[in-house]
Design brief:
Helix content is 74%, strand content 0%. With 61 residues, it is mainly alpha-helical.
């Protein structure tokens, strides 16, 4: 595995997978996973916000 950062789309996809796993675990084990779901959603929101900020910067190089 390389040390390069993953693209935002790849990271978002992995967060979606994590969210699906958390939900599946919660259903299988009758566990309240609301806090974990919220944390994953916050990470996704932060990722999108940071990418948007970089795109808007004049010299994003």
């Amino acid at each position: 595995m390389s040390n390069r950062m993953q693209t935002p789309d790849a990271t978002t996809a992995k967060l979606d997978e994590a969210l699906a796993c958390v939900r599946k675990y919660g259903r299988q084990n009758a566990v309240d996973v609301t806090a974990l779901e919220a944390a994953i959603r916050r990470l996704q929101t932060q990722l999108v916000r940071r990418v948007s900020e970089r795109v808007l910067e004049p010299d994003a190089a």
